[in-house]
Specification:
The chain has one domain: Leucine Aminopeptidase, subunit E, domain 1 (3-Layer(aba) Sandwich), CATH 3.40.220.10. About 30% of the residues lie in helices and about 20% in strands. The protein contains four helices and six strands, in the order ββααββαβαβ. A six-stranded mixed β-sheet has the order 1-6-5-2-4-3, with helices on both faces.
């Protein structure tokens, strides 16, 4: 556990969260309806429901709250939920590596991550976690294909979740 943040860091798989009690697995999705690279593949290997719910949510977006900063909660087990948080605008083209200079993301300028959207989505995750009496588990959200920096995401987690008394575990695979 990092003393200054209140976040527990463990080696492991965020799709197999550790500990007792109700758990919410939070991750970041894009606003284009794309699901097929990164952490979502690990989720889909374990449960079909989060992907199906996300695709339906996006398909029916004219009639719901789908968009940057929104969060969708899908129950995948007796005491386990997945939070699809829309925190990136567009996505990097598959042919380009986001870590390489010159890779331009589709549907956005710069990297796809949107820190304000992650903050808003984490606020929704916090409310749901409090209602469920749940801890929150996640990979380093927004820092893979979304191209974000952990030094910007970690304080959002501390502010939106930890300060509300919600236990947070971050998994490094």
């Amino acid at each position: 556990m990092t003393e200054n943040t209140g976040i527990s860091y463990v080696k492991g798989d965020a799709t197999a969260p550790q500990g007792k009690g109700v758990k919410v697995i939070a991750h970041i999705c894009n606003d284009l309806g794309g699901w097929g690279k990164g952490f979502v593949l690990a989720l889909s290997r374990r449960w079909p429901e989060p992907e199906a719910a996300y695709r339906k949510w996006h398909r029916e977006r004219a009639r719901n709250d789908f968009g940057l900063g929104a969060a969708q909660f899908i129950q995948v087990g007796d005491r386990l939920w997945v939070a699809n948080v829309v925190g990136q605008r567009g996505m990097f083209p598959q042919a380009l590596d986001p870590a390489r200079a010159g890779g331009t993301p589709m549907g956005s300028k710069g990297v796809p991550v949107r820190y304000e959207a992650i903050a808003a989505g984490l606020g929704r995750v916090a409310a749901e976690a409090q209602e469920l009496g749940a801890s929150v588990h996640m990979p380093r959200i927004g820092c893979g294909l979304a191209g974000g920096k952990w030094s910007r995401v970690e304080p959002l987690i501390t502010e939106r979740l930890v300060r509300r008394g919600i236990a947070v575990t971050v998994y490094d695979h």
